Here is the input.
Amino acid sequence: MELLVFVIASGMVLVGAVGVVAMRNPVHSALGLVLTLFGVAVHFVAMEAHFLAAVQVIVYAGAIVVLFLFVIMLLGVDTAEDLSIEPVPIQRPLAVIIGVGTVVLVGTAVIRTRDTIARGPELEASGDSNIRLLARNLFSDQVLAFELTSVLFIVAVAGTVLMTRKQKRVAPDRDRVGS
Amino acid sequence: MNVVALLAADPLLDGELRWTPLLIVVLKVLVIFVLGLVGTMFMVWFERKVVAGMQNRIGPNKAGPFGILQTLADGTKLFFKEIMNPARSDPWVFRLAPFLAFVPAFLVWSVIPLGGDFTEGRDGTVTWFGQVTRVQLADPPVGILLVLAMSSIAVYGIMLAGWASGSKYPLLGSVRASAQMISYEAALGLSLAAVLLSAGTLSTAGIVAGQNSLSNWNLVATGFVPFFVFLVAVTAELNRPPFDLVEAEQELVGGFHTEYSGIPFALFYLAEFMNTITMSAIVVTLFLGGPQPITIGETTLSIGFIPGALEGTLWFVLKLLAFLYAFVWFRATLPRLRYDQLMDLGWKFMIPISLGWFLLLAAIRTGDANQWNPVVVVVSSLVLLGLGYLLFVAALRVSARNREREGAMF
Here is the structure.
């Protein structure tokens, strides 16, 4: 049963990931990304991290990819984008190098530490103790990092608003004088 | 890792997997699926009939007694209609979208407690064929978050339906709908957080078990405000009148499902009414004690001759019907909002008020835990919230003036 879940979820992740890269239409790529995120959520459930699974679906699939789709649809890049023209010529070789490098890094890390990766101590996973532990940890030991992250978000939002709402440097009432 | 944890935390599934529990689960799945479909059919008829009554018409009255089979007739007709694929549509996504709308609507049913035995202080479990279980399909530890997750998946159905139609009105309708659903999801989540604060658990069965008397109902325990915010946010989330800009027929023809016909259209239609029922059920579960009977102090309003296990379901259905009627009532009486009014209501009123209320509740609870003077806690939090509100109003003023200078319409 465990193996079956693992195989199906991994299949979802891999098919989705290939789809993101291989699909011609950006909307289809975004859907591939959703499939991948769902596969990861299934993995989380299989590891009894229910809360992480729920958050994975709500935040990533429900908010972030929806935002991607909004951008794709509103900007209309889904119709008129020629993939053969490269805006930055060096980015494809760079992407290949980074991709291969990441695979090699993760692969060696897994191979070298294969024996030391073991099951952690079994936690009492009755009901929502999982969430309680997370919350306690987040709001006691990690509270500074948590607050700093929220500050970072606020700064990002404020910065975005500032950049999009730049004051136009025109004399405000000049064109209304005549009317 | 075992199968049990994958399925649900239900006393039924403790221990090793045997035939009787498995059969009960299969039976539950079947009953809930059929109940969902029949309930949706009933809801369509109920809405048409009640709206007709409010508008001095007769409504459906030909098929069956009181026209109750009208929905069945309409559904059968839809089965025989041709499924059209518009020439400029994206065929694959066009087919997928109705299912993305329909499946989440059904999945939400699985976590709603539909009944249970709460007589004489029992905890809502019932015994079937010698097995102790709950009258709900699954009680996962993330419970209510599953509902949020499903409602965020439902956005995809609408969004992709509009995009894949390859036509302008559906696209506009779907962008509107998804913007509206995402905006109101924030208010929905924040008022939900107030409930979770008072319940202390995410599991729907746990939330229901905590509301064992009228003063413990989250409606009262969270001080009414989250309830009203939740109700309005749910109406907007469902794209129901007065928030049905998605289907504003004068502007957008039929909204995101303009290009759909036959079964795919029926799926959207079913999902819409299904969502109305499930969301009413969520409101009942979260705020009105779900299948709990009404208990004031020591006295319980009990329906004597009905066995305890059925009584819970009866209470649940009664409360549910009240909300279904309220939704139909909204539709019959309230005029549709303008788009900027809708967004203003969501972002500038509902989200601030639910956030402020949540903070107030949290402050009161912290004060209780540390035995601070409750008056001081409430007064100082109110002063702080008032200051925050003034800042907010000032910010709104500034932005309004800026927009005026740039010559915007609103």
